[in-house]
């Protein structure tokens, strides 16, 4: 909202009449009906925000974690997650065959990290294999089911051998395979699951 000096805009006669009602105070003059601008129309804030949100979503698809995005764009992790959810809703979902191919690709990436029972022996260091391992573990959760932290740990303990469910739980959350309550008391599978087609080797 802009301020302007009344004596610079209003004829002296009209100003004198106004001063009978308002003297030495600020006066807001609303726009005429039909002249209202929607939010961001004057400053192009809408367009700038849309471009920023698209860039955040693109960075996430290329493998950036929620934590890294929050630091890069000076936003809270909660805001980043909201933006990613909104942008994901705009994107056509992969077909069943595409999702199946992704799952098969993920398991192929980490076969050397699994024991004969399909348990993760070590957590991969390279990002692409790490994401594949997380996708593999996320596949052990039931869609639509809500888990306590203890239940998440118990499930992860059944599918890894290096005794660090806390790290796996945190990585699943940071990379958007799982979502949770702010206090960490309940977890559930993100829907849809993230896809990282250009993660670094």
Helices and strands in order:
Layout: H1 6-9, H2 12-18, H3 45-61, H4 66-73, H5 77-90, H6 96-109, H7 127-138, E1 146-148, H8 149-158, H9 165-174, E2 178-180, E3 186-189
Antiparallel strand pairs: 1-3, 2-3
Helix pairs in contact: 3-5, 4-5, 6-7, 8-9
Task: Report what the structure shows.
The two termini are 51 Å apart. The protein has helices at 6-9, 12-18, 45-61, 66-73, 77-90, 96-109, 127-138, 149-158, 165-174, and strands at residues 146-148, 178-180, 186-189. It is elongated, with a radius of gyration of 26 Å. Strands 1-3-2 form a 3-stranded antiparallel β-sheet. It is built from 9 helices and 3 strands, in the order αααααααβααββ. It is mostly helical and 201 residues long.
Summarize the structure.
The protein is mainly α and 201 residues long. The chain is built from nine helices and three strands; from the N terminus they run H-H-H-H-H-H-H-E-H-H-E-E.
Instruction: State the end-to-end CA separation.
Output: 51 Å
Whole-number average pLDDT? 80
Tell me the strand percentage band. Answer: under 5%
Biggest sheet architecture: 3 strands, antiparallel
**H-E string:** HHHHHHHEHHEE
Please tally the β strands and state the result. 3
Structural class: mainly alpha
How many helices? The count is 9
- Radius of gyration, in Å, reads 26 Å
Which spans of ≥5 residues are poorly predicted at pLDDT below 50? 94-105
Shape: elongated
With strands numbered from the N-terminus, the spatial order across the biggest sheet is 1-3-2
Percent helix: 40-55%
């Amino acid at each position: 909202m802009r301020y302007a000096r009344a004596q610079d805009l209003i004829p002296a006669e009209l100003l004198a009449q106004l001063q009978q009602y308002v003297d030495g105070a600020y006066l807001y003059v609303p726009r005429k009906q039909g002249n209202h601008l929607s939010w961001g129309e004057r400053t192009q804030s809408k367009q700038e925000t849309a471009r920023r949100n698209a860039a955040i979503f693109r960075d996430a698809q290329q493998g950036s974690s929620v934590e890294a995005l929050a630091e890069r764009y000076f936003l809270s992790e909660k805001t980043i997650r909201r933006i990613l959810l909104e942008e994901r809703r705009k994107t056509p979902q992969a077909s069943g065959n595409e999702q199946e191919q992704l799952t098969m690709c993920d398991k192929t990436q980490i076969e050397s990290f699994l024991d004969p029972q399909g348990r993760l022996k070590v957590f991969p260091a390279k990002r692409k294999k790490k994401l594949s391992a997380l996708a593999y573990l996320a596949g052990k959760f039931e869609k639509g089911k809500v888990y306590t932290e203890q239940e998440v740990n118990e499930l992860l303990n059944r599918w890894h051998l290096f005794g660090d469910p806390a790290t796996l739980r945190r990585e699943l959350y940071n990379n958007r395979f799982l979502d949770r309550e702010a206090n960490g008391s309940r977890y559930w599978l993100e829907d849809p699951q993230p896809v990282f087609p250009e993660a670094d080797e």
